[in-house]
Amino acid sequence: MHPWPLRSGRSTIHQVRCQFVGVNPTSLVVDGDGVWVGGWTNPEVIRLPAVGSSRPRDVFLPAKRSLGGVTMVAAGAGYIWATAPDSRAV
After folding, report:
1. Are 72 and 39 in contact (CB under 8 A)?
2. Is this prediction's pTM over 0.85?
């Protein structure tokens, strides 16, 4: 992991970390102190800490494994939502 300073518009992020996340990550969503990333290869979402340096946590979804896993990730109503269209599941 290599930290870089980053400035965008009126906001400044003091440190950005690069971290390997899954084999084929898809969309991501930031919710509270977590960053959630969908996994295309497996029906899973991966939680990364937005603050601190704890390890990523894989959450495997009860969907069948097929050509595609999770295509979209969203946050709302206190939950993390993931779509797995090949399984016709949210």
Report:
1. no
2. no
